[in-house]
Structure formats: C-alpha cells, structure tokens
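Sequence in, structure out. Go.
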Amino acid sequence: MSRVAARKRDSFRDLAPDVKPLPDKPARVPEPDAPAAPPSRSELESSTLPPLIVERGVEWARGYTEGLDKRRLTQLSRGQPRPVSSVDVHGSVAADARRTVAKFLQDAHSRGQRSVLVVFGRGLHSGARGPVLRDEMITLLSETLSHRVLAFCSAPGVLGGSGAFVVLLRRSK
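Output:
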C-alpha cells in the first residue's frame, strides 16, 4: 500500500474509529424482482384490437369496427337501440372531458349497458380555434377505448344531433 493510501486509511480511522471494514467476500447480488403479473384480459383486448374505422363530414361522424353490419350503423344513427344513459361534457376542458367520458363508458360497460349517449356540444362558443371536443371524442372512442366501443355515430337531432354521439358498447364478458 502506498504512503498516500495509508495516510487516507489512518485519517479515516481517526474520523470513524468505531467503523469495521467489510469482510473480503464477493458482493451479494439481490434476486431479481418477481415477474410482473400477466396483463388482464381488458389490457390484452385493448392492445390487440385495431382502432375503429372513422368516417366524418362537416356536421357528422361515425366510427365502427371492421365487419360491422352497415344496417347496425343506420339503426344507431336513428338512436336505436335507445341510449340507456348519458354523459354531458360540453363546456369542459378537453382533458377533463376525456377523463369523464372514459370513466362513464367504463362504468356503463361494466353494468352491461349497450347503447349510451355522449354529449359534447357543437363547439359554437370555442372561438377561433373551432370545436375541440368533437375531435377529442372521436379519438377517444375510436382509438383509446376501441376495446369497449363497437361503434358510434352522430346522434339524431332529438338526442343532440352533431353535438352528441350515440355509442354502441361491446358486450361485457
């Protein structure tokens, strides 16, 4: 050991006289953490289901899973089956609206509801940037929540028209 190393060792011993050196044995490597739990069925479904096919016009929009019977979409655009519950987020900030609608659809799906109404407004008071919530809802329903949503379309006028979507949920398992 060099003189410098010996002086450092002695200085350390003077500063911390009660400290004992560690034994010269290999370091113990901790066991790796237990493997993560397998993903839940809904996580698997959400990661494997493709986004819905989306079609839109100036005053209307619809999204549906590939292979869905077009007659089903026509019925949905007429409000059939009649929505059994609804959520109204118009006037909300986009992030709050997404959270509220996601929670609402999760609850409706877990209760076995098939047809629900999501009201977001037409965006007439959104100012220069134009309507925001409509596009947010399209993305939420067609991509983020595609594991719960079978189809959606602009509601008939009596249910909110272009400011609302009738949403057909997948069957709960």
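Check: Residues 92 and 133 are 8 Å apart (CA to CA). The first strand starts at residue 53 and ends at 56.
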